[in-house]
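cron nightly-structures :: item 1 of 1
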Amino acid sequence: MEGSDAPYGSVQSFDAGSAGADGGARQALGDDGVVCLRGAFEAPWLSIVEDGIAAALAGASVDLDVVKREGDKGQFSFSSGAWQTVEPFRRFILDSPLADLVWPLLDSSTLALFYDFLLIKEAHSDSALTPWHQDHSYYPLDGTKVVNSWVALDHIPLESALRFLSGSHSSSTLYRAVDFDDPSAPYRHARPELPLPPINPDACILATTLEPGDMLVWWSHTLHCAPGNRLDRRRAAFSVNWLGDDVTYNGQPALNTYIDPLLSPGDRVVGDKFPLVRQLDAVNG
């Protein structure tokens, strides 16, 4: 495990290729709500993701947004659920070591693909910040075995790194979804959860620098945020969200990316849109 990155506490980090990393990383994820796997992907796999980015930005992604906020020199782009139409993304998700790195962390008999998410903050997209939130607040899901695996595509220094509230996943308390464009405004799919309380400035906030190929993994109930990109270069990541064996569909209002009209409340979230990619032999019967 690596040392700390002042002024924040450090996200616990493990060498993705080391023997016994699964146990330590699983414990860190359970304790803190987030963990970092260093060197998870080598350059050839990252090149495949870059091919996917080129395709997505050229129109292959059917859910692509490009935003430039007033006063910013740079824009930011994001794409969601593109794996079915962007072949390089599909290859990375299904053929790379990704699933086998993530699955042992969930303590789950199965692993299903939920969705992918591309986020590119171009140079000087200063106001493209991500407010404090929980991923799970946006999902029509019950259960706790939901994780985001977030792969850095660029060097990400501490000043532009994600921040996590250590242990904020542990109670499984679900807070109201936050509108990213205007955190003070109601979110489009408002639900009855409690509003997110102010983050205590003395709380344990975790962050870490990342190199291309490093991967953060966090639970969907973990509170996190990120600043805009004030760097003179791009800050990009490709993330994939996964579901374990305790997750069911609840039918709450949500974005289309997270909805399958073939599912009913109480159903396991598995199907053509959310394929099962790993399962223990015993589950096969």
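cron nightly-structures :: done
The longest strand covers residues 110-121.
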